[in-house]
Amino acid sequence: MDTALRAYEDERRPVTNDVVMANRKLNKTERSIANKTQDEFKEFPESGEFEEMQKKYAKGEFDEL
């Protein structure tokens, strides 16, 4: 069993590490979207928040997000 677990970890650990590192690079806005619950995410487009973000992205105002 140790051999099978080691092989699995050797395969999955680099992939998992890549995901963790990518998540750490998210900006404030991306992180807030990623942390929303499913219910919050469903309400997100209707809240007007998404449209506001699109306008700021279009203007290049990334730091204000």
Care to describe what's here?
With 65 residues, the chain is mainly alpha-helical. The chain has one domain. The protein is built from four helices and no strands. It has helices at residues 2-24, 28-34, 38-43, 49-59. The longest helix has 23 residues, at 2-24. The protein is elongated. The mean pLDDT is 83. Residues 36-45, 52-65 have a biased composition (Basic and acidic residues). Residues 36-65 are annotated as: Disordered.
Structure described in brief:
The chain has 65 residues and is mainly alpha-helical. It has helices spanning 2-24, 28-34, 38-43, 49-59.
Shape: elongated
Estimated helix fraction: over 70%
Q: Total strand count, please?
A: 0
- Look at the helices and sheets and give the structural class: mainly alpha
